[in-house]
Amino acid sequence: MPVKASTFLAAAIAVGFALPGLSAGACPNSAARSAQLDAAGATKVVITAGAGELKVSGERGRTQLQANGQACGSTQALVDQIQLASRRDGGMLIIQAIPPKSGMSDGAALDLTVMLPDTLEVSIEDSSGDLVLQNVQSAVLTDSSGDLEVRDVAGDLTINDSSGEIEIARVAGNLSVNDSSGDVEIEAVKGAVRIPVDSSGSIQIKNAGSVHIITDSSGDISIEQVQGDVLVDNDSSGDIVVADIGGKFTVSNDGSGSIRLQHVAGAVSLPSR
């Protein structure tokens, strides 16, 4: 929801830089980075992350945002250029990781852990590396590559992902997922689950208020324990299996693969073969 700048906190954490010259887990040169912001009166946090692992956790009763990171690079001179700066501009707090002068070349990364009050909305942009998000008010995630694990969101959750596995558990509001590739596992969403586009990879949904898949290009779909309707507008290939549906079940267009259903309380509408 829109909030005036004077009443919300936007904490932008920009981390980045690919690590082409280093193997997984290797960090020949490193240095700690940290920043802290007073979160009193804040309602929103914005995190922009590049290469590196990112973990964001909300904590009940916390009054400050704490960011702790480790800069890593092929040379110490490169690491020294990676800084985590912070400043306040009116009601906006900004945390920014300063990249090396060489930018994406020569390899650099920043693994980051962010701890914040669990009452804040969270917006994250991440280019690469695994991401874990837990215990937040609501969230919007945009991720290019790397696995995503999200759990315990008190409100709505929106995910736009290019590649990597996605695991989602315990969302009290609505959920929207756009995914290019990688399997998607969703469990315990009280609101509506909406998937506008899933290009490849399987979809598994268990325990949701309702489900609407608009376009699925390839991969099996498994849906069970849904209180309301299950709608699949366009499915190009892969099996569809549904069970224990409290509302209607509709598949508008299906290219290939079987459709199996069990215990559907409402009307069933399937395309003719």
Question: Could you describe the 3D structure shown?
Answer:
The chain is mostly beta strands. It folds into 2 domains: 8-146, no CATH class; 154-273, no CATH class. It has 1 helix and 23 strands. The protein has one helix spanning 76-81; strands at 12-14, 29-38, 44-49, 54-59, 64-73, 83-89, 92-98, 108-117, 121-126, 131-136, 138-143, 148-153, 157-163, 166-171, 175-181, 184-198, 203-216, 221-226, 230-235, 240-245, 249-254, 259-264, 268-269. It has a 23-stranded mixed sheet that branches. A hairpin with a 2-residue loop joins strand 6 and strand 7. It starts with 11 loop residues before the first strand and ends with a strand.
List the helices and strands and how they pair.
Blueprint: E1 12-14, E2 29-38, E3 44-49, E4 54-59, E5 64-73, H1 76-81, E6 83-89, E7 92-98, E8 108-117, E9 121-126, E10 131-136, E11 138-143, E12 148-153, E13 157-163, E14 166-171, E15 175-181, E16 184-198, E17 203-216, E18 221-226, E19 230-235, E20 240-245, E21 249-254, E22 259-264, E23 268-269
Parallel strand pairs: 1-3, 1-7, 3-9, 4-8, 4-10, 9-11, 10-12, 11-13, 12-14, 13-15, 14-16, 15-16, 16-17, 17-18, 17-19, 18-20, 19-21, 20-22, 21-23
Antiparallel strand pairs: 2-5, 5-8, 6-7
